[in-house]
Amino acid sequence: MPHLLMTFVGLLFAGGGILLGLAALTWQRRSATSGRSLAAMLAGAAVWVLGAAAEHLAPGVAGKLLASKVQYVGVLAIPPAALATVLVAVGRARWLERSLPFLLGFAACGIGLAATNDWHGLVWERVALAPGPGFPILALDYGPAYAVIALGCHVQLLAALWLYVAYSGRGFEPEACLVHLGFAAPWATNVLYQLRVGPWPELDLTPLGLVVTGVAFTVSFHGLGNVFSTLKLAHRDVLEHIADAILVFDRDERLLSANRAARALLALPPLPAPAARALAPFDALLAWVRSGAASAAEGGFDIEIRTARAADGGEAATERRVFDARAVPIEDARLSGRAAVGGRVVVLREVTEQRAAEREHRLHREQLRQILDLMPHAVFARDGQGHFLLVNESCARIYGMRPENLLGRSQYALHDGAEDVARMLAHDRRVMESGAASTIEEHFEDDRGRSHVFRTTRVPFLRSEDELPAVLGVAINVTREKERERLLERLASTDSLTDLANRRHFHEVLEHALSTARHKAHRAGLLFIDLDRFKMVNDVYGHLVGDEVLREVASRIQDSVRFTDQVLVAGRDTGDDAGSETTVSRLGGDEFIVLLPEVTGPAGAAHVARRILAALARPIATGDERLQLGASVGVAIFPEDGADPETLLRHCDQALGNAKRSGRGKFEFFSAAIGEAEERRHEIERALRRALERRGELEVHYQPIRHARTAALTSVEALVRMTSAELGAVAPEEFIPVAEESGLVVPLGRYVVETVCAHAAGWRARGLRLPRFAINLSARQLVDRATAEELGRIFTAAGLDGSAIEFELTEGSILTRNPVVGETIAALRSQGCTFALDDFGTGYSSLSHLRRFEFDRLKIDRTFVAGIGRVAGDEELTRAVIALGQRLGIETVAEGVETETQLAFLRDEGCDFVQGYLLGRPLPAADTERMLESALGREKDETA
Length: 944
Ligand code: C2E
Ligand code: CA
Ligand code: CA
Description:
- This protein is α+β, with helices and mostly antiparallel strands.
- 54% of the residues lie in helices and 18% in strands.
- An eight-stranded mixed β-barrel has the order 19-20-22-23-24-25-26-27, surrounded by five helices. Strands 3-2-1-6-5-4 form a six-stranded antiparallel beta sheet, with helices on both faces.
- Strand 10 (451-461) and strand 11 (470-477) form a beta hairpin.
- Helix 3 (61-89) runs parallel beside helix 6, helix 8 (206-222) crosses helix 9 and helix 21 packs antiparallel against helix 22 (543-562).
- The longest helix is centred in the first third of the chain and has 34 residues, at 135-168.
- The model is unreliable at 224-235, 566-579 and 938-944 (pLDDT under 50).
């Protein structure tokens, strides 16, 4: 028996030591869940157990009494500490705050009572001595105070037990069983002792039950491994205060530990607890922890957790928070404790705001992309090496790709033409270097080989400082615009009929070509081409045929200049010079002009002129007709014949005029003499125009025409004279051709007829009756439909009839297909006018014309008359003409009779009339009147 007692006491000491140790360790872990209250409970149990041992060992009654009191101190600390521990462990720390004064007060009262009252005898001795169950005896012995305290103790213990059962009642859990064991062990041992049952009925096992309680509680609430790992981890506090939630799971998915952030976030049950329970409300996190992913160390995983938001006043709302979850496997037992090995540490970092910001950022990017893709223009960013950093849909479409496929590609990989790319990238770099925006036009072939023109604006691309510079560009496709521009330009610069350059465009080209020629010191040639008889084509065949002819002429001219480049120009650099091409242009009507921008000299230009003339000499077929047109060409060479476009053109035109005058189908160079003559012609034209307006400068002189045999005055020829204020007297030989060319001969002719009629009427009124007045009529007047009627009106106005007038026509003027000529002649003849064929023998001298127009007289040209007595041929011809006239019944008039020899010859040959200085020079009207008076007067005398 004493041996058994000593063993028991030894066990008590050992148990007390264990409890004391656990208390100390738990106390050290201050921040652990319910650590302090658990430590207090353990300490209380340790004091009780050690006190019980001391009571057994104490030699005297006083010692036993003291040990017994010490036991009470320990006993009374246990219930409040147990309740507090459970409250915290089940997450009811706030209830603890409220009940703490009561719990502490209760403990203090009990301890005070036990320490001060002497009725506390030898507790267990007393009970041990009593027969039967001890509790009622104790209650009787110690009175109501003891009963109240005992009741209070048991209420607290029951409350703690109930709380724990209530919170851990979800299935079988080792932790819960341990706690239940902790509650049950002292009660069971105490009941066994009081009922005196069990192996050693004499020994009170309650203190040993308390040891079981301490160990069970400690293991349950902290887990042994956790306790020790906590001690081992140097940075326990750091972990505890870290903002990220840190959870430790063992290999069986039990949540062993959680730091403060984790506890606050997840409101965890007493730990350790299975993950399934601890994380039940957070299914996403639980699922993740359960899945193998949780053990993969690398990479984060976003988990959404809904937590209650502390709503001020309003109803509690939940808040969606996002955490980046990462798991680290636990391999080292020394660091984590054995229970944790094979498990993992899970770290949850809150990224709610970060993710929101990222979402926002992504949204912005998407919006930007949406905007870019919506743009019809290509948008791109490129680095210095031509790699695409950004492209929109339009840009990718150019390459027939998707934007994502284009990114990162080099411009070189996309184009065949490395030169084009180099040029493009050079532009890029210029913008990067200068930092200034630039807009240029770029030519570009797409993936289908269609060429485009882009107007591209580049700006330096904004990038962070450590990135290489890049360029941002917007390329607007202006191909259509360009095409339209070109078309408009072409329309504005070409002659719609022939597709040649028009006048406006030609002037531009000429100006450019001449400045180039001046710059490079070479010659240029200008060829003015005028079609012969084109007006006739228009008049006779109509405008449609005329247009057709012009088109044919244009193409022939172009054909004949096509190869002139090689022929004419030696060693020319075939550059990008727009002015270096031979340009053919239609200036209007039947006037064409050819620009040879570079010629070796006059010979080259002459070569081209000859080719053109040859080409135009060939008949042109239109419908059934084959028209023989021919042309004249005037040539001027830059810079000799004109240093500026205007002069060169004028001189070229003068050369053309000269070519036309010198006979059809020829070309003529400009020369200074031509220039002067042309100048003179212009002056004369201006003078004539003025003279026609002023009327004071024109006059009509009359030259007598006499009967060859009788020398009687039969007629006078009206010859117009001009005395210009600026030029003085100008010979008709000079101004009549100008009048013909300019068309001024029509008003001039009208003036002459009016004047002649006025004189004739006046002279008649004074009794001077001359049978005929000869008036020269030009070809222009003959083809004018208005002429016959107009002249008729003049006759009537003067009170004359046409029989007093004889018109002199040249062969050239009637040599035409124009039907108006015949009509005019017929109309005038019907008014009584007669007709003489002037200058006979110089022109075509066609007998059929003589017949067809029924001339009344034939005027032998003065060049033949001049040969009489000197040139045998002229005499023969004169003789033949006179004979012809006699045969045909047409009277002959010899012009330019200056000598008696001539007069005698003509008289002998039977010429009817003579005219010339020998018989009278042309005289002004007043002198003529005197001449008429003497001539007709003498006639009167003779008849009288
Ligand atoms: P034409 O019709 O052959 O006129 C005769 C020209 O010979 C006149 O020259 C006259 O002065 C000139 N003449 C007359 N007798 C002699 C002579 O013995 N010796 C020489 N050497 N010449 C003589 P003019 O007046 O200078 O006229 C020249 C031409 O101008 C005319 O040639 C005629 O074709 C044209 N012309 C003159 N007046 C008119 C006119 O009113 N209307 C038109 N359409 N033409 C006119
Ligand atoms: Ca005449
Ligand atoms: Ca004549």
